[in-house]
Amino acid sequence: MLFSPRKPALSFAVPALICLAAAACGAPAPSSQPPAAPPATAPTNQTTLLAEIKANDAGQLAVSEEDGRFLRVLVATRGTRRALEIGGASGYSGIWIGQGLRQTGGRLVTIEYDPVRAKEAAANIARAGLSDIVQVIAGDAFVEIPKLQGTFDMIFLDAWKKDYKAFFELTFPTLEPGGVFLAHNVVNKREEMGDFFDAIGSAPGAWSTIIAPSGEGISLTYKGR
Ligand SMILES: C[S@@+](CC[C@H](N)C(=O)[O-])C[C@H]1O[C@@H](n2cnc3c(N)ncnc32)[C@H](O)[C@@H]1O
User: Fold this and answer.
1) Which pLDDT score is estimated for 2?
2) Alpha-carbon distance 77 to 108, whole Å?
3) Number of structural domains, the chain?
4) For residues 193 and 91, what is the distance between their CA atoms, to the nearest angstrom?
5) Hey, is 84 helix, strand or coil?
6) Can you give the pTM of this predicted structure?
7) Ligand 1: residues whose CB is within 6 Å?
8) 169, pLDDT greater than 90
9) Confidence of residue 15 (pLDDT cuts 50, 70, 90)
């Protein structure tokens, strides 16, 4: 939640009014049907789930909450339809992106090398009720990306930093004109990726900027139309 406004006084009066109206009309006839059980796959509250993933993230792999929130808003406001994430870990950023894609009707493919984390990601995404939107691929993204069909309108890179330039060169051709390529940790791990900055700076027809919702930093490279 962004904020928790205090409840206005009216919110206490409304239930009382509803009770009075029900009494005036008489109690509803008892149903012969048992109360409906919640579906077995009822999604976990996403805010609770995100906090839980963070609490269990001993290696501090997941993006910050601020960066996750940014990804969600960016996805929704751009009307993103086909997103790729490289380095999905346990699904934290994938859930934020998936929440944005729920609004746009888009889809995310997220690739995670570590098989245990990939399994956790798939389980967390299922708990978030986003399995219809987010597909987790377990494997090396250098191997898996060439197998993917089609193009993307958003790519989010959050793998090992030494590989950033190679991933940019591999995936930028698959980004649609008008699409955006994002890379994480470009502020707090900047010294590990100097060659990546050279690559995004010299990509023809591309414009880059850096934003830092938290201290981690995200580069945005827009591919001109
Ligand atoms: C910083 S974490 C990603 C965190 C995730 N984006 C989140 O916010 O929840 C980096 C992840 O990239 C994965 N990774 C590194 N190299 C990879 C590769 N070549 N292919 C797929 N995943 C890779 C690592 O196993 C690790 O889980």
Assistant:
1) 38
2) 16
3) 1
4) 24
5) strand
6) 0.84
7) 61-63, 87-89, 92-93, 111-114, 117, 140-142, 158-160
8) yes
9) very low
